[in-house]
Amino acid sequence: MKRRIRPLFSLLLVIVLAATLSLRVSVRAGTKPVPRVFSKGALPAFNATLLKFASVDAGEARLQQEIEQLVEGNFGNRGRHRSFLSSGKYRFDIRARSARGIPVSLRSPQFYRLWLDFKRHLQDWSQKRRYEPDIMSDMVDIVKDKIDRYNGVAKKGFEGRFKTCAVVGNSGILLNNENGKLIDGHEFVIRLNNARTGSFERHVGSKTSVSFVNSNILHLCARREGCFCHPYGAEVPMIMYICQPVHFLDYTLCNLSHKAPLLVTDPRFDVLCARIVKYYSVKRFLKDTGKGIEEWGSAHDGANFHYSSGIQAVMLALGICDKLSVFGFGKFASAKHHYHTNQKAELRLHDYEAEYDFYHDLVARPEVIPFISGKFKFPPVVIHQ
Ligand SMILES: *[C@@H]1O[C@H](CO)[C@@H](O)[C@H](O)[C@H]1NC(C)=O
Ligand SMILES: *[C@@H]1O[C@H](CO)[C@@H](O)[C@H](O)[C@H]1NC(C)=O
Prior knowledge:
By secondary structure, the protein is an alpha/beta fold. The chain contains 14 helices and 7 strands.
């Protein structure tokens, strides 16, 4: 039965995708890509072909399909969901649907409530997922306000941005300098993916204002007692982006036990980050290989391509900080990949070289960064290497 339906479904999906794409393209063509206002100098030459190509997320159709299945309670036909459901302390007893298509094993009232919340979060998130060029100007409202309120900072109208921020990546280059005190001297310090600071304080500091993670990290934490996920202390807020929609189960569960805020990145912010990173990746690919734009997908595993946690943390900081220092990004042949692990290689689903191009523009000429509204004011950025 399933087998017969699948090709038809895939075909439908292709049709829907094609229709969506042509719609998007015509909408964009009608609105002029990324109008930007510059006080002096010429407009940066954005190549329309490149912008259009970077605007398409090759994984979107699969994502929407996954969301649909999850909302229907259909966890059964994907290997990774099955392993998700049977791992750890919390066994989500949602099996593949019964013969009559109704989700089975919704056993306890507590579980049922969790399940409803999960569906609501997932649907809200999915409905909000779209390109919004002004989203950077909302980051103070969306993120900083929540953290300020939690920290007991009185809200007297517009609080503005943090005066100074440090984003601390996990590159082994951190071990080359003793920047611990310098890092801790910033008003707001963002750390990535729960890299530990213990026994590295001289190099990486010890202050953490926010722990920025991808949802795989929380998924691992969800197996622990009380979703324990706090190498920097349980009072430190966490912000995470969702890599797989099924991770909203972890979110729904863990949000109950976290004392500090557990925030999910705004899906409009995710879309913006995805476009920017794809743009830089394609640009570099064209320059380095001399190949056609249509070959980028196979070179970079288009549907699985994803920005790194690091670049999204930097993007976040751009929105909530007056001044930004970046530490622990980049690599040298002599440096370890991570300061705190022995991992050898970089993950292939990220294009770090392209992300470095972005950081370079961020420092030297932020006006050439596409997709961000011209109204947004970039803070000055310093990269410490
Ligand atoms: C824009 O980029 C595409 C793809 O690399 C290229 O074929 C085209 O010539 C470029 N257009 C302009 C105006 O530079
Ligand atoms: C997560 O928990 C906090 C604190 O209990 C609550 O205020 C917030 O509404 C929850 N988030 C969602 C999306 O339900």
